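FAQ

Q: What does a record look like?
A: Structure on top, sequence underneath. For example:
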């Protein structure tokens, strides 16, 4: 026998759905994408993205923005007009700091996400939006994720994105300004529109990888633990818990995104048979333990049993 229709219970479900949706959309107007700032005085708002700048590291701690399907279809060409950010108190690094360093000045808010206007494109080349990235990372797995994000923005009409570096202690620096070299990077993404609210995070070491993007996917709670930031904190606690405590790979299209990477980053898988507790990426001198996704999975490297060789990985701790 069919369960009897209960009008009151049905209307309660409808009301809850309306309240849930209206809560999300009202918060969007209040810059829901912005993490809780560590230093509100260093938060800089540009036309199409916002960042929090770190005077100690000479980079942004994060950049945040909404990316819509319309913006993905923008036609403004890339400018490459790298320059200091005039809105950052105390000034920023300059392009000369990267010359001869061996690092790319990698975008946190990608230029390809800013094709909607000349202003958006131009502002994406402020040095406050740049962070030292190893070329094989910037032009490889990071580029793959950026391509995927644009597909997701198109499929979901709009998404919220926060990207940033991960800093550990005793970091090396480049340039006369003293720009810190991150040990890793993160990106978190929120689809805040019905019918399928969802969120996902990513954690990477600052080095190339041939692994699929899905191997780097984590919950937003995982990213918060790795970075110390509080993402999407303006959500009510119950909604935040629901969206950030877990993630579902099946809700995100990982098969349609472009696998295009720049030729210089394509690298063969290491062929050496396992013979050590640690893997040293000889290009970055980073040490990875056997549980790390980068163990025996970088273009150049060797095994070692020396727990003091190299710099500990920012993800696995070496």
């Amino acid at each position: 026998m069919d369960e009897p229709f209960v009008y009151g219970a049905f209307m309660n479900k409808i009301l809850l759905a309306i309240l849930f949706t209206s809560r999300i959309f009202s918060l969007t107007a209040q810059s829901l994408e912005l993490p809780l700032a560590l230093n509100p005085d260093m938060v800089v708002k540009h036309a199409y993205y916002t960042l929090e700048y770190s005077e100690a590291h000479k980079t942004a701690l994060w950049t945040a923005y909404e990316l819509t399907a319309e913006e993905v279809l923008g036609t403004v060409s890339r400018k490459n007009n790298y320059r200091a950010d005039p809105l950052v108190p105390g000034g920023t690094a300059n392009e000369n700091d990267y010359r001869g360093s061996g690092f790319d000045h990698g975008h946190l808010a990608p230029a390809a996400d800013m094709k909607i206007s000349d202003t958006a494109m131009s502002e994406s080349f402020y040095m406050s939006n740049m962070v030292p990235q190893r070329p094989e990372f910037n032009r490889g797995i990071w580029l793959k994720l950026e391509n995927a994000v644009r597909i997701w923005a198109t499929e979901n009409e709009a998404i919220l994105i926060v990207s940033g570096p991960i800093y550990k202690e005793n970091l090396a620096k480049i340039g006369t300004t003293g720009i810190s070299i991150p040990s890793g990077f993160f990106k978190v993404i929120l689809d805040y529109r019905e019918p399928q609210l969802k969120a996902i995070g990513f954690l990477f070491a600052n080095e190339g990888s041939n692994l699929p993007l899905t191997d780097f996917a984590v919950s937003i709670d995982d990213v918060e633990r790795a970075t110390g930031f509080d993402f999407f904190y303006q959500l009510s606690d119950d909604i935040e818990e629901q969206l950030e405590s877990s993630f579902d790979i099946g809700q995100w299209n990982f098969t349609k995104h472009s696998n295009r990477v720049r030729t210089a980053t394509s690298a063969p898988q290491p062929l050496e048979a396992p013979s050590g507790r640690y893997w040293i990426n000889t290009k970055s001198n980073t040490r990875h333990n056997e549980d790390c996704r980068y163990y025996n999975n970088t273009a150049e490297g060797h095994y070692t049993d020396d727990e003091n060789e190299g710099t500990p990985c920012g993800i696995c701790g070496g």
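Q: Is there anything notable about this one?
A: The two ends are 60 Å apart (CA to CA).
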